[in-house]
Automatic annotation (TrEMBL):
Keyword check for Glycoprotein: yes
Family listed: Belongs to the multicopper oxidase family.
Transmembrane spans: none
Key words of the record: Glycoprotein, Signal
Presence of keyword Signal: yes
UniProt xrefs under SUPFAM superfamilies: Cupredoxins
InterPro entries: Cu-oxidase-like_N, Cu-oxidase_2nd, Cu-oxidase_C, Cu-oxidase_fam, Cupredoxin, CuRO_2_AO-like
Signal peptide extent: 1-23
Entry superkingdom: Eukaryota
Domain annotation Plastocyanin-like: ranges: 33-147, 160-301, 396-522
Pfam families per record: Cu-oxidase (PF00394), Cu-oxidase_2 (PF07731), Cu-oxidase_3 (PF07732)
Organism ancestry: Eukaryota, Viridiplantae, Streptophyta, Embryophyta, Tracheophyta
This protein's name: L-ascorbate oxidase homolog
PANTHER family: L-ASCORBATE OXIDASE HOMOLOG, MULTI-COPPER OXIDASE
């Protein structure tokens, strides 16, 4: 018996090795027609971005290691790019879809993204990254299912729902852009949308979700909004947290969850209540005026409207910080790969570099800008990745224009420039986000997931490392920083490419609160980074430069 098992096991290992070498992972093809349309999500007609006529866009439902091919037809009147928030694009920052990695797709043309959701599993989303396009919609869910061979630590739910929540403005993205370009802020949003709709909790909305009594469902909440953290809750139901931006968590139960900008949480909900309708409630957090929307869940055997009494949102950010501290990685659950980022035991790895980044707001020539360590990012016509690849970096940006420490003198004086930090391939780095401002920040790192080892009020100092969670912090891609607080993350820079670190607040990102980290493999090998795709449009100063000799091995 034991021998038979061993033989079987060896056969399976051999087979999977052969498949990795010879068999290609499955392909999923998408064709997207991106247009403007007119919809009234808040009751007032406005311009929105549609993908194949839909708002929000279609979900990408795939499995670990699938090849995703998205042919995007830009039928807007402006250049366009999509980014795949949380998809790590291993060796492949060419597909990142940001103005620092790609030339935008000109209006009236198409471009085909091709990437693999390598070794990932979980809940993510995509959105248009160009100018202020996210304010017009164009976002959708990305769900990476586990491959058959890898079990997830819970039973298959009856159904699986992406719930994209976010604040929303009635003004068009171009009107909002005019505001920012003229030096002002976006001001207050007009409402909150749940999958593109704003229910009023008055029993009049069509149900968006259906549950059979006794069955368990997975809801994947992502905050695709522009400015505010959102609290989500479900009337009368407990949410069991199972996954968070690609990591399986210890399955704690919550009455409500704070979803900060750019974050995704997936929960299991069992239809174990009296058969009638219930509301999902989404409301803004840390705002003077609380904006709220509902979406209706219908029990298939239900007879009766949802109660008009909506559960209250928590108040203050101390609650939110405590909730953050309750999230734990399930160390025994299997993952899409056994050793994410090569740093399962991240607490035992020596830190090779500490980068401290402080956000700030200030005026430059009478206009509002946001900065990191005193420099406010400006987009260059030539994407920084292309400039570097074509050997023309010195014509576009200066490496390390900011240091690893914020300027000693706190001042709101700012420089405007592209920011590209040089980093060493495979270094294990600690990044400290310092937030001296009064608003909550949300930071997203592309290309990696990281361990958020601590968030605390006050200022960071090396002694704070004693309080880090060096055991079971949940590996993820987006982290909030509370007012006058800091957050510390750790990651191994083992993914070669040009990676964006950005504020997920759209006005902050647009007005300068972002940077790139250049991680180059000294080996110049295809094992570490792919070549620029043949179909990549070229622009700026690299348009007429000879394409560098591609890596061959
Ligand atoms: C895209 O949608 C627009 C508007 O519906 C339509 O006019 C156009 O033919 C579509 N293009 C393609 C390639 O389907
Ligand atoms: C998503 O993909 C999974 C796995 O292939 C499949 O079981 C499920 O039915 C799909 N869901 C939708 C909504 O297409
Ligand atoms: C544009 O779409 C056509 C198919 O309609 C495809 O053959 C071509 O490769 C696409 N172009 C790019 C740059 O992806
Ligand atoms: C962690 O995952 C394992 C393996 O699937 C499961 O048996 C266990 O219940 C999970 N632990 C917690 C605390 O959620
Ligand atoms: C980490 O640093 C300590 C102290 O400098 C050293 O003793 C230890 O060997 C290092 N560990 C590794 C894994 O490099
Ligand atoms: C940054 O990296 C590039 C490419 O490896 C190198 O040419 C340059 O000297 C580095 N600059 C700094 C300031 O380290």
């Amino acid at each position: 018996m034991g021998t038979l098992k061993l033989i079987l096991f060896s056969l399976i290992s051999l087979l999977s090795t052969l498949m990795m070498v010879h068999g290609e992972d499955p392909y999923l093809f998408f064709t997207w027609n991106v247009t403007y349309g007119t919809l009234s999500p808040l009751g007032v007609p406005q311009q929105v971005m549609l993908i194949n006529g839909g708002f929000p866009g279609p979900a990408i439902n795939c499995s670990s290691n699938n090849n995703i091919v998205v042919n995007v037809f830009n039928n807007l009147d402006e250049p366009l790019l999509f980014t795949w928030n949380g998809i790590q694009q291993r060796k492949n920052s060419w597909q990142e879809g940001l103005l620092g990695t790609n030339c935008p797709i000109p209006p009236g043309t198409n471009y085909t993204y091709h990437f693999q959701v390598k070794d990932q599993i979980g809940s993510y989303f995509y959105y248009p990254s160009t100018i202020l396009h996210r304010a017009a919609g164009g976002f959708g869910g990305i769900r990476v299912n586990s491959r058959l061979l890898i079990p997830v630590p819970f039973l298959d739910p009856e159904d699986d729902y992406h719930v994209l929540v976010g604040d929303w403005y009635i003004k068009s993205h171009s009107a909002l852009r005019t505001l920012l370009d003229s030096g002002r802020t976006l001001a207050k949003p007009d409402g909150v949308l749940i999958n593109g709709k704003a229910g009023k909790g008055n029993g009049k909305d069509e149900p968006q979700f259906t549950m059979q009594p006794g069955k368990t469902y997975r809801y994947r909440f992502c905050n695709v909004g522009l400015k505010n953290s959102i609290n989500v809750r479900i009337q009368g139901h407990i949410m069991k947290l199972v996954e968070l931006e690609g990591s399986h968590t210890v399955q704690n139960e919550y009455e409500s969850l704070d979803v900060h900008l750019g974050q995704c949480y997936s929960v299991l909900v069992t239809a174990d209540q009296e058969p009638k309708d219930y509301y999902i409630v989404a409301s803004t957090r840390f705002t003077k005026t609380v904006l709220t929307s509902t979406a209706t869940i219908h029990y298939t055997n239900g007879n009766g409207p949802a109660s008009p009494e909506l559960p209250e949102a928590p108040v203050g950010w101390a609650w939110s910080l405590n909730q953050f501290r309750s999230f734990r990685w399930n160390l025994t659950a299997s993952a899409a790969r056994p050793n994410p980022q090569g740093s399962y035991h991240y607490g035992k790895i020596n830190i090779t570099r500490t980068i401290k980044l402080a956000n700030s707001a200030g005026m430059v020539d009478g206009k509002l800008r946001y900065a990191i360590n005193g420099v406010s990012y400006v987009e260059s016509v030539t994407p920084v990745k292309l400039a570097e690849y074509f050997g023309a970096a010195d014509k576009v940006f200066k490496y390390n224009i900011i240091g690893d420490e914020p300027p000693a003198e706190a001042s709101d004086k700012m420089t405007l420039a592209p920011i590209v930090l040089n980093a060493t391939f495979r270094n294990f780095v600690e990044i400290i986000f310092e937030n001296p401002e009064k608003s909550v920040q949300s930071w997203h790192l592309a290309g990696y997931s990281f361990f958020p080892v601590g968030i605390e009020p006050g200022t960071w100092s090396p002694e704070k490392r004693k309080n880090y969670n060096l055991l079971d912090a949940v590996s993820r891609n987006t982290i909030q920083v509370y007012p006058k607080s800091w957050a510390a993350i750790m990651t191994t820079l083992d993914n070669a490419g040009m990676w964006n670190l950005r504020s997920m607040s759209l006005e902050r990102q647009y007005l300068g609160q972002q940077l790139y980290i250049s991680v180059l493999s000294p080996a110049h090998s295809l094992r570490d980074e792919y070549n620029i795709p043949d179909n990549a449009p070229l622009c700026g100063i690299v348009k007429d430069l000879p394409v560098p000799t591609p890596y061959s091995v």
